[in-house]
């Protein structure tokens, strides 16, 4: 039986580089390069760099 | 008010004072135990001033407390502490009752009155013959009641030793503190995991924020992450 087709997009988690544990969840095309952006981190109350979380595990 | 009722009233008051006097002696532990057995006529030959004093003292006590002191007279320790005052009390002289009468009365009353060397009614008691333990005569709740009552009347030190005494509570508090684990000398409060790790996490965050401008600079130079081969973390 054929495997179910993967969706075209994936939900990714962008983590604050201030190491506060704050993150944002976004959707991006599966084939796209990893996301990164400057966003506001309410814990340190500043705009900081957010980078996409490394995909761990089997997937 | 007619003559008869006036006389009745005075008689009643006299008897009341006699009763109070008898109990006041027990209360202070000054008079010999025979005092209780004396009848009203013998009591009247006491020193009048001290009698009035005892009556006044006894009148201030609630009946429940008086009954307790009558049954369990204060110990020798508390009696000796008031020895200075006790010296002025004259020894009652037996005049009217014969020796045999007194003995008989004593024997009939002995079961109703606890002997002065009886065990503390506030503590469990081991029967000397059977070896079985008996509960305290007064429950902890009633002990606390009596202590509260005695404290209000300023005679708490006349009560036998009880764990409900105000001094005991203070002693326990001094010994154990607030009973919060880890607050003693040389101890540490364990705390929650987030409390224990907070210091290191804040330090980590501080270091990350210090390196943030450089990281942003590099990110911008590499085309907003396009050229970023190795992502941090």
Features:
heterodimer; A: 59 residues; mainly beta; Rubrerythrin, domain 2; 4 strands; 0% helix; elongated; B: 233 residues; mainly alpha; two-stranded antiparallel ribbon; 2 strands; 54% helix; rod-shaped
Structure description:
The complex is a heterodimer of chains A (59) and B (233). By secondary structure, chain A is mainly β. Chain A has a single domain (9-54), classed as Rubrerythrin, domain 2 (Single Sheet), CATH 2.20.28. Chain A is built from no helices and four strands. In chain A, strands 2-1-4-3 form a four-stranded antiparallel β-sheet, with no helix packed on it. In chain A, strand 1 and strand 2 form a beta hairpin. The radius of gyration of chain A is 14 Å and the shape is elongated. Chain A starts with 8 loop residues before the first strand and ends in a 7-residue tail after the last strand. The mean pLDDT of chain A is 89. In chain B, 54% of the residues lie in helices and 2% in strands. In chain B, helix 1 (3-28) packs across helix 3 and helix 1 (3-28) packs across helix 4 (63-71). Chain B is rod-shaped and about 110 Å long. Chain B has helices at residues 3-28, 40-43, 48-60, 63-71, 76-81, 83-86, 99-109, 140-152, 166-176, 193-210, 212-221; strands spanning 125-126, 133-134. Chain B contains eleven helices and two strands; from the N terminus they run αααααααββαααα. Chain B is mainly α and 233 residues long. Classes of the chains: A mainly beta (59), B mainly alpha (233). Chains A and B meet through strand 3 and strand 4 of A and helix 10 and helix 11 of B.
Secondary structure elements and their pairing?
The complex is a heterodimer of chains A (59) and B (233).
Chain A: E1 9-16, E2 23-29, E3 36-41, E4 46-52
Antiparallel strand pairs in A: 1-2, 1-4, 3-4
Chain B: H1 3-28, H2 40-43, H3 48-60, H4 63-71, H5 76-81, H6 83-86, H7 99-109, E1 125-126, E2 133-134, H8 140-152, H9 166-176, H10 193-210, H11 212-221
Antiparallel strand pairs in B: 1-2
Helix pairs in contact in B: 1-3, 1-4
């Amino acid at each position: 039986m054929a495997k179910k087709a993967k969706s075209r997009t994936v939900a990714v988690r962008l983590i604050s580089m201030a190491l506060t544990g704050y993150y944002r969840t976004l959707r991006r095309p599966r084939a796209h390069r990893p996301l990164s952006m400057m966003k506001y981190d309410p814990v340190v109350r500043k705009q900081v760099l957010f980078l996409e979380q490394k995909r761990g595990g089997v997937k | 008010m007619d003559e008869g009722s006036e006389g009745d009233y005075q008689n009643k008051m006299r008897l009341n004072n006699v009763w109070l006097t008898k109990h006041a002696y027990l209360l202070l532990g000054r008079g010999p135990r025979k005092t209780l057995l004396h009848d009203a006529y013998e009591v009247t030959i006491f020193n009048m001033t001290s009698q009035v004093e005892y009556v006044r003292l006894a009148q201030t006590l609630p009946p429940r407390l008086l009954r307790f002191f009558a049954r369990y007279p204060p110990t020798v320790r508390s009696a000796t502490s008031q020895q200075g005052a006790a010296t002025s009390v004259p020894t009652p002289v037996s005049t009217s009752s014969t020796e045999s009468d007194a003995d008989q009365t004593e024997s009939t009353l002995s079961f109703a009155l606890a002997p002065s060397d009886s065990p503390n009614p506030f503590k469990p008691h081991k029967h000397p013959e059977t070896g079985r333990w008996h509960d305290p005569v007064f429950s902890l709740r009633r002990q606390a009641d009596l202590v509260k009552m005695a404290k209000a009347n300023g005679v708490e030190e006349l009560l036998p030793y009880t764990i409900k005494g105000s001094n005991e509570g203070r002693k326990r508090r001094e010994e154990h503190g607030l009973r919060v684990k880890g607050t003693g000398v040389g101890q540490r409060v364990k705390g929650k995991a987030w409390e224990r790790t907070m210091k290191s996490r804040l330090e980590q965050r501080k270091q990350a924020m210090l390196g943030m401008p450089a990281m942003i600079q590099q990110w911008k130079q590499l085309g907003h992450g396009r050229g970023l081969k190795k992502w941090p973390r």
